[in-house]
Amino acid sequence: MSNRIAVVTGGSRGIGRAIALTLSREGLEIVVASPEVERNEEVAAEIRAAGGAAATANLDVTSADAVKAIFTEVLKDKGRIDVLVNNAGIARDALAMRMKAADWDLVLNLNLAGAFRCAQQVLPGMMRNRWGRIVNIASVVGQAGSFGQANYVASKAGLIGLTKALAQEMASRNVTVNAVAPGYIETDMTKSLPEEIQRKYLAAVPMGRIGKPEDVAAAVKFLVSDDASYITGHILAVNGGMYM
């Protein structure tokens, strides 16, 4: 997979960081893209220190203009984008009847519309090159639902639907579009949950342990590889058996 260019949104921490580091070890040149400029640089520096190639992008996926500008710049600088990992995401949890309209709008805009905006920027080049990989980071809750997360669940279920639609549109051009649906993974987002909720989630995992960001990154590594060239429109669950 060497010499291929991969953009990882939300690549500054957690699952995104693990994906960026893992793909760089496979020889891909990584663009670490998130609004966390300093953290982006830290991840890129880590990649370079290990002998890899990395650039950074100050990317806010909620802004159509920003997305267009950043991807235009990357394409101009690198010549092409071979791999897109749509990992950027946030949660703003509340019971549906109390959920603020602004929190609904933000989560759908960032998690779902943001992924669409980024995909739209890379599809023409991938079609021309007749090779491409898009991996959307969904969630177990997009498959199973979750109490108090109507906005997050809707965004991740929407991402699964988007994955299948794009997969059908792009299949004839040798461009695959898949999703990874992580379960309970050790990240900043899950660490901030109340202990009682963390215990409840852990009890729902048959494997009896919390997943690591590297577990998700390994699934992404497979889906962007040539070994996965006949897999598209697939949702790969990385959840320790939490939902089957």
- The helicity comes to 40-55%
* SS-derived structural category: alpha/beta
Count the DSSP helices.
Answer: 9
Order of helices and strands: EHEHEHEHEHHEHHHE
- Give the number of DSSP strands: 7
Strand content: 15-25%
Unreliable residue runs: none
Shape: globular
Give the terminus-to-terminus CA distance.
31 Å
Order of strands in the sheet with most strands? 3-2-1-4-5-6-7
Instruction: Describe the sheet with the most strands.
Output: 7 strands, parallel
- Mean pLDDT score: 97
Q: For the CA atoms, what is the radius of gyration?
A: 17 Å
Name the descriptors:
244 residues; alpha/beta; 7-stranded parallel beta sheet; 7 strands; globular
Short description:
The protein is of the alpha/beta class. The chain has nine helices and seven strands; from the N terminus they run E-H-E-H-E-H-E-H-E-H-H-E-H-H-H-E.
